[in-house]
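Hi V.,

You were right to ask for the full record rather than a summary. Here it is.
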Amino acid sequence: MVRWYDGLSQDGRFIFYSVVVHAVILGAFAINLTPSMRVQQAEPPEIIHAVTVDEEQTASDREAEREAIAQAQREQERQEQEAEEARRQAEEQERQRQAQEQQRAEEQARREQEQEQQRQQEAERQRQEEQRRAEEQRRQQEEAERQRREEEQRRAEEERRRAEEERRRAEEEERRRQEEAERQRREEEERRRAEEERRQQEEAERREREARERREEELRQRMEEEQATQAAQRARTRFVNVWGQQVREAWTRPPGSQPGLSADVRVRVMPTGEVADVEVVRSSGDSTFDRSVELAVLRASPLRVPDDSDQFRRMGLDNIVFRFTPDG
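Predicted structure:
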């Protein structure tokens, strides 16, 4: 080894150190590139101390060696820093990996939890759906029961309404019938009352007419009677005058009677003119004269009378009082 080291020139030694440093760096990089392995601190490269036997080595060679060693130390420090940085990066990557794995695990757990929640939600949804269907079925049954009850109530109400309507219709019909009967009764009563009033009015008019006719008839009869009476009076007067003339013709003045005497005599005469009775109702004061008047009436019988016996009675000739005045 000494011979090999001695055979190296200054440039060869520099290249040797460079190769060693690069080998260390590559080893550190190889360590950093393994993610599953723990990053360990790189060991400082073994410094080969060559024992110089050449006493003729110059001070420049030693200076170059020291510079190479310092450079190797700096390179080693740099490599250590890079290794530390690589370690920190690896740790950071590991932390990130672990964080990612934890995040993935948490994400997986979250997904599983979400899936579990979804399963639970689905189960809850199915349970709620079942409950909803059961509730819907119950509601439908209740609705059907409610509709059935409402239908029964509606039918009962309809029956009650129809019965009430029939009752009201019957009552209304009965009321109209009673009103119609009452109206007909009132009309009949009004008709009877009007008929009665008309009949009464007609009866009153008839009675009035009859009364008027009776009054007219009575008036006519009175007029006729008055006329007949007047005529009878006139006829009676004529007949009385005739009877007086007949009695005067049949009368004989009694001896010694005073002139100017008169007497009222009642003569009852038969319709045939026969004198039934004679009576002096007012004496002349001379009985002989009175007796002579009675005898004259009897001798004058039958007296002249109307041919009609009714007329005879109307004139009152059957019982008449007349004044006999022979000298009048």
